[in-house]
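Hi F.,

I've been meaning to write this up properly since the lab meeting, where we talked about keeping a consistent format for the predictions we share between groups. The idea is simple: the sequence comes first, exactly as it goes in, then the structure tokens exactly as they come out, then a line or two of notes. No screenshots and no reformatting. I'm using this chain as the first example so we have something concrete to point to.
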Amino acid sequence: MNNKKMNTIQVASLGIGSMVGAGIFALLGQVVLYAGNATYWAFLFAGAVALLCGYSYAKLSQIFPDSGGITEYYHRAFSWRFFATLMSLIYLATLAVSVSMLASSFAIYMTTLTHLPHAMRPIFGTAIILIMGLLNLRKSGTVGRIESILVFIKVAILSTLVGFGIYHFFDNTLLVHNNLPATNFWAAAAFAFFAYSGFGVMTNAAQNVNNPARTITRAIYIALIFVILLYCALGFVVLNFVSGDALHTNINTAVSSASNMFLGRYGFVIMTIAGLIAIASGINALIYSSLKIIESMANNNSLPRVANTRVISRATIGFLALMILTSLGCIFLRFELISKIASAAFLVSYMGLFAAHFLLRKQVSTSRILVALGFAGTLFILIEMLVN
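Output, unedited:
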């Protein structure tokens, strides 16, 4: 792929695109039902753990600006090559499974919008994977610009929803006056954390930016802080304008239900389209990251070098394998199963990130307290997710 340089906003857009996808559209209702009026705290706690992950990503990317991102950190930190390769494969598999999950969600939204039968979902899911895959065969700068456009559109729509919520809150109309108890706060925090997962894709752009130490670090913090604020704002809208009964009925479409309160059927359609755009940009960001990791792992012999062999134009064997595997996952795996696998694998990968940062502390400026807190936070969320 041509390596035209990306700027800070384009890199941050990759992170925002990866985070603000199916996770928030599908999981917001569950976070609100579990956390109730403590929804903000659930998102803030999960966001704080995500920021700790971002801290380690930022520090490591300054010293090791490689397109392999987290997989490069594993190989730098763990002397046992087998373990480093295993962790890298787990993370790569996590991204691939996440692409399948997002594609499944895209297909659900498409059949909901078009009223087509469920039998069409495998076709829609496979189609969006192939479209975003072909986009990633173009220049990195082109990928960044398109991602920026997609992110701008979905953020504009979501911000408009938040604006309606603020207006009607002070106008004291349409309010439902929920008083939802926190039935399982830590389960809500686990769901909330999954809505942040995937921001590590920004480090995979390290070789496609000028001054990666500064650009990647800024992009990580910009993306995470922006998304934390956005999620809290969306939680505010759902808490105040979607009743508890409506949440139970439309738990996977809470954002669209809130929009329906303000604009009726048109609002539901607009927010469903926003969901489709959000999911498409998430798929784009994850495929970009996956291809960068495949390329890096093939170069350091963690994967067969044949993975980088071109077969059709810019398409490599690694690219074709990714397209086939993610499409099969979308077709044959249930959405709920995919999301649980991806969430657990992300947490394991981030625990490995903190371990790598600690082992590399002599080469990388490190706050041991922040690294320890990050590791403990991800471990705690993993345990809560498995228990609940």
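Notes:
The mean pLDDT is 85.
The longest strand covers residues 310-312.

If this format works for you, I'll send the rest the same way.

G.
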